[in-house]
Batch of 3 targets.
Target 1
Amino acid sequence: MDSFFKDIRYSWRGLIKRPAFALVALVILALGIGANTAIFTLINAVVLKPLPVKKPEELVLFNDSPGEGTRTSDGDLQAGRWDIFSYATYRYFREHDRSFQELSAFRSGESRVSVRRTDAQSGEPAERASGHLVSGNYFAVLGVNALQGRVLTNEDDSTAAHPAVVISNAYWKQHLNSDVHAVGKEILLNNTAFTIVGIMPPEFFGVRVRRPPDFWLPLAFQPQIELRDSYLNEKNVYWLNLIGRLKPGIQIGQAQAGVNLELQQFLTEQAGSQLSDESRLAIQTSYVSLAAGSRGLSGLRFFYSQALRMLMVIVALVLLIACANVGNLLLSRAATRQAEMSLRQALGASRARLMRQLLTESLLLAVIGGVAGILLAQWGVSLLVARVAASSPLDVKPDLSVLLFTAGISVMSGVLFGIAPAIRATRTDLTSALKEKATRGRRGRFNLGSVLVVAQVAVSLILLVGAGLFARSLINLQQENLGFNRDNVLLASVDARIAGYKPTELSAVYRHVYDRLSALPNVHSATIASYSPMAGTKTSSTVTVRGYTPNKGENTNVSDVLIGPNFSETLGVQLLMGRELGLQDTPASAKVAVVNQAFAQAFFHDQNPVGRRLTFEEDSDKDDFEIVGVIGDSKYDSAKEKADKSVFRPILQVQDQLAFANVFELRTVGDPLSVSAEVRAAIAQVDDKLPILNFTSLRIQTDEALKQERLIAQLVSFFGLLGLLLSCIGLYGIMAHAVVRRTNEIGIRMALGAERRNIIWMVLKESLLLVASGLAVGLPAAWGAAHLISSQLFGLNPSDPVALLTAVIVLTIVAALAGYLPARKASLVDPLTALRYE
């Protein structure tokens, strides 16, 4: 240890004496290690970190999909995988299961609520907040306690119980001003008085990894919170996610078998004496796929985990380039220390002792670079989180996992870039060192340093090709024909439910708002819809088309969208035949619908669908809808996917719960957001209690839908350019070092009549030869890497010649510039000075 500390002190003095060398090496290492630490920190926060609850490894989810919503069915038997559950299913599992200490249920999605204080002044506007319905044992199963007060219990989860609510720490601080007496106070949620019984700690956000809801409420109060009929006794409404805590000694596989047996027993009891062969087959094919619940449900993990792993590979390549760069610097330095190493050996130092000293210097560089990399990574991660998940409770502080990872790659990097220079520096003797000046200009041009440059160029080409492919894929997505005109359309989301409207009153209020909005001077046309394109919302229904017999197992699910008058004109969707839905389609008129081209092709092929009839299986009245028009296909969910088969029904004709979720869409003259104040005033003239939840434009919304693709393209491009920069630094370094070593030779050549252009070409030729060798190695590797990411590309062949050619040209030009600078410097050497150079 004494000699080890001496080595560290000596290495530190050596770095201090050569500040330029140390600074360049540390910057390169900080960039390489920092990039790896930043991406690993995100992977740790998004993919690896467990929930901040008691013994998260014991938790098991009955479905790990981040999807949310409600599904209804006209039958009791749901064949296949169950990913969402009815309240009756949850109760059966809870009463019959033997694998879990306890099972808990929570609403598949959050609910919007209107919030008022009980002491609020008359006319004071209500606040908008989010609530999450959970079973009474939700907090007990997770193993968390309140910061103040208590959590919900099973006694609270009863229709006969006094309404109780637990609030998030953020809501307590931001809306209740950290009132120490908040527990015990009453608060009006959708005009129902709830008593605050507890305040959760700041680190708790629930099972879903995102911004915590403002309120946690008992499932029994679902009708008061969602302002609709109770789901508690509805066997065919599926609206719950389940989570449980395993009993000691029980493995997830054992629990899986038990749960599936219980599900089949439950379905058999539900079917009763009506158990047909078809029902029996459906029961046998029904199952639940349990998943580890330690990390909760995360949309970020679902959407970004694959991209983050790919980025981890990319930054590992950047680190390899950085290590090659620092290795080249150390090789250059080793060449100047041969006399020192030979003298040390002559004085008795063993080669192993010298290698240990040199590796200590490399490791010291790597450790300092790692510390700088952590600081750089925290800055980079903060920027990424602000762009990707500003409202998510991601903990990106460097924990033990991040520190161990950074320490590991720092040590690995130190050994990686230090071992070859250490071997090279100690492979010498005193005689060869004394002859160094005489042989300086006659060394082989292509050595280990050249090999490292070739490797850097090859890896940089891989990164640049990847960046080009992702950039071109993003351009294709942005230019994809979505079937609607996304420009100059304002979206105003409203929720009449929390304003107290009944389903039967919606048609009249929507008609009044539509008339007001259509009359605005800067509004060209207006409509209303249950949801807008690329909003992340979807309603599916099963249809039966009169005269069409589906094939066995054929999926007749369609997208079910409620729309208002002037829908095609407002969104710029082409009307192909028939008519649009209009003001005449009211509850008193015959039921009608418009279908898209994909629907017409699937069910009618080349026949005219206008006048044909269809039925929604979920429709309790089983009324027929007459198809009165066909419109062009439009992509509502993803620009990457084909347009769904879609049915558009008149929202003014619907008088049930489906009509509550809606958005007003307005085609404007000029910037759509500039008329938001006029739209707000127009809606307030109809009813000032009708809440406007959000204003945005269709352009912004469609761009937001491409956020993941845009971020990946930007990050891959950034790391590709970083790799290119580091490669060019390496190329410049080795060529500059070669020029210095060949100063005598250059002087002789110039003294014998060589012109400047000859000297420039002599040096530049070697530089271009290194680049060409790197391209030859990198092109096959880039082709293979491109095929590995082909599933993430859109409208693009992984062998895209434009991306390959662009990467080659950019790399050649930039590398040629890096080689030209030392070549130009060589051409300016004074022959007399060069001949005397030592």
Note: Residues 437-445 have pLDDT under 50 and may be disordered.
Target 2
Amino acid sequence: MSRIGKKPVSIPKGVTVTAEGNVLKVKGPKGELQKNVHPNMSIQIVDDEVKVTRKDDLKENKALHGLTRALIQNMVKGVSESYKKTLDIVGVGYKAELKGKNLLINLGYSHPIFFVPPDEIKLESPSPTQIIISGNDKELVGLVAAKIRSFRKPEPYKGKGIKYSDEHIVRKAGKTASK
């Protein structure tokens, strides 16, 4: 048995979970999410808990068991609390600003980058060097954060670029002058 897979997912107040065939729908105060569940996994909703079971002990099904439970947990947490990632922009002249719902980023290239986020994602820019990405789908929030970070990854010499706020950049020593 998967240690994570056999734990039940508790459903907080204000959140409803419904399973129709292979489609799991989770609705809460922050929004609604739905996900297709692998046909080898079965889901039972009992009282305020969701339990995931697998049909057999094949290696693939063992892996899917914990994954499915974790995805359901992330959905329940997302519709009740929401997810947030913060990006910091480091570098002289590097900045970001919101234009309506879209993001305009200057990163030292010959052109500014105009980023249009998905509808489910909310972007904020409290200062020109900080971007906050929030939404109720953990996977989508992480994907958008990774996409924005990929425009200019932090470099190891001065640390210039876009980094996660909790990320530590390992610095390299620069060139040393000869005698």
Note: The first helix runs from residue 59 to 80.
Target 3
Amino acid sequence: MTTLPTGTVTFFFSDIEGSTRLIQRLGERYPDVLLTHHTVLREALAANGGHELRTEGDSFFIVFDSALQACAGAAAAQKALHAYQWPEGGIVRVRIGIHTGEATLVGNEYVGLDVHRAARVASAGHGGQVLVSETTRALVDHALPTGLTLKDLGLHRLKDLAQPERLFQLTIEGLPDRFPPLKTLEATPNNLPTQLTSFIGRDDQVREAKQLLAKARLLTLTGPGGTGKTRLSLQIAADLLDQFPDGVYFVPLSAIHDPELVPSAIAQALSISTTGQRRPIDALVDQLREKRTLLVLDNFEQVLDAAPVASQLLEGSAGLRVLVSSRAVLRVSGEQEFPVPPLGLPDLKALPALAALSQFEAVRLFIERAVAVKPDFGATNENAAAIAGICERVDGLPLAIELAAARVKLFSPQALLSRLEKSLSALGSGTRDAPARQQTLRGAILWSYDMLDAGARRLLSRVSVFARGGSLEQLEPVCGPVEDIGGDVLGGLDWLAEQSLLRRLPDFDEPRFLMLQTIRDFASERLEESGEAHAIRDRHLAAFIALAQQAQPHLFGPRRKEWLDRLEEDHDNFRAALEWAVASGNSRQAMSLSGSFWRFWQMRGHIHEGRARLGQVLSLPTSGEFPTERLAALEAAGGLAYWQADMEGAQRFYDESLALTRQIGDKLAIANAIYNDAFPILVNRTNIPRAKELLEEALPLFREGADDGGTARTLWGLGNAAYFAEDYAVATPPLEEAQALFRQLDDRFMLAWSTHTLGLVGLATGNVDLGRRCFSEALRLFVEAKDVSGIILQVDNLSVIARREGDPVRATRLAAAAVAQQTATGTGLGALLSQREGRTGREELTETAAATAWAEGQALTLEEATAYALDPKALPESLRNA
């Protein structure tokens, strides 16, 4: 692989002028034309030392070691494009921009202001034209080969809104050298303010907003403080300059508090005189009537009563468009809202390699701003996870990321993340020339908070107890009653969402609202100050105990996935509720919640976490005072220890549970405790006769109580006892009876487990076909519910089937995938069973071949491993060329 240059390098950007029109004109012929364009460019640039970084559609991003090579490559490319015989109506004209500077190389990406500068240089040109920056000219002016000269085009403000740049045209002998005026800010009347920093990312938002503004004449960008609404609106306006020949005007309203003054502020920005008795709004309407103009009204949230002004101006001028940035919509006819999302974030649970990490907008912004304050800062494998964590902690908000990046002068990313996890006050202050409300993140949020009435403030603080959002079903009982917040909860939540302090989440059956973590921290402080934090957190705890208990009966039947997904959606809320119960010493509620919730931890692969949390709960000093709740928690702890393959730990929990149940429980409760107590010694094969004895004690109690589910589970247990005793003929009847009962009950969880055990019997008796059918059916049942623990075990089982059927490479890959997932989720039961069966997962392969297959399997995702286990032809992409 070619080593990319570092230090001072020359950046080359190009694209096809009028590509959209070309597509429409050529239709099906366009892909061939585009391919030719790519080929011509690549040959010319590679021949002159260009390193291709990426191609997007018709645009190229190339980097050169030397400015002279970049100019020679651009000239060669333009000559080749000009000489090519394009089809009728399909002439390709390419504009090129060249700029030399320094940028930090992160993986295969360059990060820095000079990269953006080069792109903007290119966007100022026309098809067939090559533009060169002042820094590049200084390096090549006296060294250009014959046939190439530079023409000074003067100072120009580019659409990155930065300081003016002196541009030069690379004139190529034999090619056209006259072009229209450059597409820079000078081409259209405007007052767009100079920006001292680059505009990072947001390409999708800029493109979407431009499309919306072409349809709706009033577009309102909404979002909380620090989202970057102002900067985004300025970039949209700069990109639209050539569509508004009569001007693009920025109207800052942050210093205006009286709605009556808004027309005057607009008139001032447009340099329209409003002296005398004539009303400013009338002067504006007259001035704009026949004009094609774009107004950018910034920070409209504090003058919302002036919204009719925008309507009056639009009614008076058919060529006018209005772009508004506000924390709340204007609520006027014809308005199109565009919620500004945070910057793109990587998934902390599956971080990409360093080379790909900088492609996420939030990470890129952090790195660029960090380099600006600390030139020797670099993103490395060691600090990449911390950088991603910082960006996630501040919700991808541009203001917060910039504040965080400024702190790298004092802290490493790792140290900064540690501080941010405790308090956002570690962000400090921003630049002194920023508006006061944006010098700190707290100031930006306080700006919105101060505009709320007392009821809305109280509601906002109460919502802060919800982690990662909540549904209306939970929010209403926790955040009410009506008299406390001055209206119904839904109406209040909608109002907070309109003020950009909450976000409405789409794609849910009922309304669901999310508070960004940065706002949540602020609101949580207000809740503590209110004196009602304890009561509100108790309500939140009660709401999620109720949800966990509501879900319990559904975790085994046909609606398993639906209810597991619902619990997954609120996993962070369950965590917050349990943490509060433990912190406040509420052992009864803590045991009630964890005892109701443990199956989710087990089924969705959070076993390590569940076991640790139950350890905290059972250690609370008052936990012994509530025997009923302690029983539920002991059974949960025993179950999670069992799934971790900690049979000794499981036995201790189940023994205590059985002793307590014999004291306070009825016959069915005792039967259930006996059933549980039998399993650790059964699976661990320490005393199979004793396990069988316990199960035979439980069975008549379940039958007497007409508990078909308990009866079926115990029959399954007896089948397991016979299997572990290698008495396979005795094992089959109770397993088949249990399986039939589970089908009748539609208990899909236990149907999968009884089918799994029948598969083990088939495998042990040499019936590989039965084993495959049983394991595959069990796997599909577990996949249906996204039951991670069960899926992992069946992938391991099917690895044995693959080996028996003569495919040791696939078998080893599947075994390795199972081990990787066991480690990640804490599901140790499969490893224990493999150990008991004497499986290594590498049989029938040489050491080298086994190591290769093992590494390939470890790299598979759970979804890839599942598909591969069910179908040998479902080979993951990563293995197709292996």
Note: The radius of gyration is 33 Å.
